[in-house]
Each structure stands twice: as structure tokens, then as C-alpha cells.
């Protein structure tokens, strides 16, 4: 018995588009996260998708208790990342065009990226491989996103 599928036949929920429309890329300023954003930008350009660059600002109770201005520091990091994105976009604007937005969320990286991907209705998530040695034992954000199984996740080395 042969089963055929015609284009007009519905096989379940679909957003009605081919390929991703929103690609979330997590960035924290590390080399691997910057490579992940570059990779995601290429995907977004080829798919004509929106690139949503997400920086999750850590909330460090211990730093706050010690009098360290954590929010000011992470706000400055976010401003620096946006500035870098604008500069990179300006340098390649005539040869490489991609629609992008920058979003910040507060919290731990995993939950911040999950919240971002849910709120932005992400079709895919791209993150850099962890550069911290301890993550081999306790699990990285990338591994946790893959295990969540909610979106296709690409991990860029």
C-alpha cells in the first residue's frame, strides 16, 4: 500500500511557512557565543528569517549582597554587545543583509533562553558551546536546551 500526500492536505499544525521565521541566538560575549551569532546570522539571511540575539543578564544575589553593582555591569555588557552588533552590521551592510533584534532577559542562561524562545516564538535556537570546564560534569546550557526538545538547537563550537 502506498500513501500519498498532496500539498493541500494538512498533516497537523504548521505555521504555514517553509523554514524558520525566527532564529534565537544566545550571546554572552564569549568567543563561542559570538561565533554562534555569526552562524545564526548566516542562517537567518539564507532563510530570510528574523535573527533574535538574546543576552541573558545574570542575577547574582551574592554580588548584590557584597555591594557590587551587578545590574549596572550587566547593563553595560548588554550595551556593548548591541554596539558591537551595530558595528558589525554596518561593516557588511552592502553584501550581507539580515533582519535582527537584540533582547535582554534577566535570570540564569538556560531559563532566560527558554523564556526568550517561547516569547519570540522561535523556530530554532543557536548557542555557543560552553567554554567552562565544569560543564562536562554538571551539563551546559546547550545540553539542557537540547534535552528540553522544544526547538531544533544548533551548538556552535
TrEMBL record:
Residues 1-12 have a biased composition (Polar residues). Gene3D superfamilies: HUPs. Residues 1-21 are annotated as: Disordered. It comes from the Bacteria. Coiled coil: none annotated. Residues 21-157 form the UspA domain. Transmembrane segments: none annotated. Belongs to the universal stress protein A family. This is Universal stress protein A.
Amino acid at each position: 500500500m502506498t500513501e500519498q500526500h498532496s500539498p493541500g492536505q494538512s498533516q497537523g499544525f504548521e505555521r504555514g511557512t517553509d523554514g524558520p521565521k525566527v532564529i534565537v541566538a544566545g550571546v554572552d560575549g564569549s568567543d563561542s557565543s559570538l561565533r554562534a551569532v555569526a552562524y545564526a546570522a548566516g542562517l537567518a539571511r539564507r532563510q530570510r528569517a528574523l535573527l533574535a540575539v538574546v543576552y541573558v543578564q545574570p542575577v547574582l544575589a551574592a554580588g548584590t549582597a557584597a555591594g557590587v553593582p551587578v545590574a549596572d555591569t550587566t547593563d553595560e555588557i548588554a550595551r556593548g554587545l548591541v554596539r558591537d552588533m551595530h558595528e558589525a552590521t554596518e561593516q557588511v551592510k552592502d553584501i550581507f543583509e539580515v533582519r535582527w533584534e537584540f533582547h535582554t532577559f534577566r535570570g540564569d542562561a538556560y531559563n532566560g533562553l527558554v523564556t526568550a524562545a517561547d516569547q519570540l516564538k522561535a523556530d530554532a535556537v543557536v548557542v555557543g558551546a560552553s567554554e567552562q570546564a565544569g560543564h562536562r560534569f554538571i551539563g551546559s546550557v546547550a545540553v539542557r536546551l537540547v534535552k528540553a526538545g522544544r526547538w531544533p538547537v544548533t551548538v556552535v563550537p
